[in-house]
DNA sequence: ACAAAGAGTGAATCACGGTTCACTTTTTCA
DNA sequence: TGAAAAAGTGAACCGTGATTCACTCTTTGT
């Protein structure tokens, strides 16, 4: 036996894998999973098509991993918003929604790919998994708000899903008109819509928010 | 010239075209536009693959027509709800949302295909067109409610889009758990979420709806 | 320096599904 | 009835894009 993987090789392989994932991420962010084509990925990563298959068993696996990483980042952002301990559950939720909305609006193709684009069973399963994480995060905040009697009793999961849907549709749906209003105004409006949906009785008759 | 299309032939052709559209509609309703494959359509319609092309120039055209017809039906349902003159704008809107939600929940695959599934440019353009009709209908009701001072000033189009998104996501998104609650309860809940999103100050402190 | 083992390559292959077209069948009318 | 015109057929064709594989290049330990 005259060969055993050494650190140098391991590092190079790790680097190549990173380049593959990076290239894939770029393609998806630019034009969705439909643009994730094996020789495009290879070309952008600077390797041969065949080499891809030394790193990922098949396209499904690669796509699922790209999806997983991308969603992880998004979920982390939202989680961080919800962990700030310096305000009430409802404000934190509002902040998280706003972040979610702003990030979606800044990278609409990516957001669409993660939220809605159908790909294949493996990715759809990943999507389900991370969707659950998302929904759980929001739902958890909703539950806290309920416990704190800031909003009335309701199914937190359903509300959470509805809020994600409202934001997604308004910002990246087919009718999302590009930047008629400035970014911040539009995300604020839609966030307010969501929060009001949860919490009718915390708002005064003049409609002023918390 | 020893041939000119006669009534008999015309009728038969019309019938065949109907069968093609019917078969296509079934396939889409069962598994989305991805299942709209030319030889599947032909088989279900009981004709040869080649014959399809005597009726539709290509798949794009067929898909667009299937989409158009299906959406027309849905839009009509909603329009009818909004035309009832016997109640206030907000009640009508609520009724329309409820109808939209119930129909989506009963045929989720079809709803998904019409609302979200990406197909091809021709269909996407149709989608944009009918989405606009949809949004306009809801937005019109929202505007009326604003004029009647039932809800505060807001961008009716944005609210309308958000409501459609909330319903779609909650009912047919990847997290749409099948029938945990009875149909009516779930559509009612989500409808209420939407209406509250519009109209904070019409609700009393107890959270009772109009 | 050499041989074993893995890593890298990219042209060839394969699967899938839309489209075509040479052919058959049906319809119409003189 | 016969010939023109159209309708119907389905196997062959084609483009696209994932996957394979026979080959070359690198790396490693003796």
UniProtKB/TrEMBL annotation, chains A, B:
**What does the record give as the DNA-binding region?**
37-56
Q: Which PROSITE patterns match?
A: HTH_TETR_2
| One example GO MF annotation | DNA-binding transcription factor activity
InterPro entries from the UniProt entry: Homeodomain-like_sf (IPR009057), HTH-type_TetR-like_transc_reg (IPR050109), HTH_TetR (IPR001647), Tet_transcr_reg_TetR-rel_C_sf (IPR036271)
State the UniProt keywords alphabetically: DNA-binding
Could you name the domain of life of the organism this protein comes from? Bacteria
| Segments forming domain HTH tetR-type | 14-74
Q: Does the keyword Coiled coil apply?
A: no
Q: What is this protein called?
A: TetR/AcrR family transcriptional regulator
User: What is the taxonomic lineage of the source species?
Assistant: Bacteria, Pseudomonadati, Pseudomonadota, Gammaproteobacteria, Alteromonadales
């Amino acid at each position: 036996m005259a060969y055993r993987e050494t650190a140098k090789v391991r590092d190079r392989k790790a680097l190549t894998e990173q380049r593959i994932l990076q290239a894939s991420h770029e393609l998806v962010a630019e034009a969705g999973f439909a643009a994730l084509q094996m020789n495009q990925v290879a070309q952008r990563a600077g390797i041969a098509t065949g080499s891809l298959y030394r790193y990922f068993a098949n396209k499904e696996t690669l796509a699922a991993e790209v999806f997983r990483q991308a969603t992880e980042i998004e979920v982390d952002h939202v989680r961080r918003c919800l962990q700030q301990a310096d305000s009430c559950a409802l404000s934190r939720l509002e902040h998280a929604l706003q972040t979610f909305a702003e990030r979606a609006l800044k990278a609409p193709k990516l957001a669409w790919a993660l939220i809605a684009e159908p790909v294949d069973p493996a990715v759809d399963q990943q999507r389900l998994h991370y969707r659950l994480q998302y929904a759980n995060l929001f739902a958890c905040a909703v539950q806290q708000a309920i416990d704190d009697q800031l909003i009335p009793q309701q199914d937190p999961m359903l509300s959470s899903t509805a809020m994600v849907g409202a934001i997604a549709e308004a910002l990246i749906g087919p009718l999302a008109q590009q930047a008629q209003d400035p970014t911040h105004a539009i995300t604020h409006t839609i966030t307010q819509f969501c929060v009001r949906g949860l919490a009718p009785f915390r708002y005064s008759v003049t409609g002023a928010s918390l």
